[in-house]
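User: Before I run my own analysis I want an independent prediction to cross-check against. Here's the chain; please return only the structure tokens and, at the end, one sentence I can use as a sanity check.
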Amino acid sequence: MVVWPTYPLEVWLLTGLAVILIGISKAGFGSSVGVVATPLIAIVLPVTEAVALLLPLLLAGDLFTVRHYQHNFDKPNLVLLVLSALVGVTLGSLFFNHFVDQEEVLKIGIGIISLAFVLYKVTQITLPKALKPYQPNRIIGAALGTFAGFTSTIAHVGGPPVIMYLLPQNLDRRKFVGTIAWLWLIINSLKLIPYGILGLLSLNNLLVVAVLLPLIYIGIRLGLLMIGIFSQRIFNLLIYVLLTITGIQLLIGRSLLSFLVVA
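Assistant: Structure tokens:
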């Protein structure tokens, strides 16, 4: 029987914000904006419910992005990353299966991934200077692809390893974006299988997805509008601050605001 979830207002607000941020990222304004979505929702919902809720919404955004880059991708890189990411998806699914009833472990894991992403973005400022263009190293690519598949499965945060592999190759911009777009469309589609086997997907979730789906479009339109108005650097900085706060809250298991309350 399908039952409409009775979420508190804060769940709808944070989930709506997360979905809009995904739309903004899919529009090309701040490609890493969407990374905050899962950690943000995991504050107010169980991790398994958060990732299951977001997967169909991410797929909707992926379809939009691929539509604009459908003929622009680097085939050798895409094949390598897809195959290795499948290994990571399998490992991530086994991780979920083992810890599915240990919510605290899952939240700590997402908190660690969130803070690791922020650390990566901080060091990325010097990364392009430190890494010279090189011919793709299949071993490094396979390792990073596997890690991307793993983190994508448990938190929808697989972007950094992929960017670390592709960025130093100095690919044409459209090929770079198109390769990433196709990768996530394929991987997110395949993640439906383990999510279904693990029982993470439900008709109740699909009802919520149907309600939230228009927010993807709103986020995309906002992203396209913001490209010509706001500084992407400042907007990304705000996102990283939000991600840092969210990651810390998931690690410690309580809101940072609670420390300001005098007992």
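Sanity check: The radius of gyration is 18 Å.
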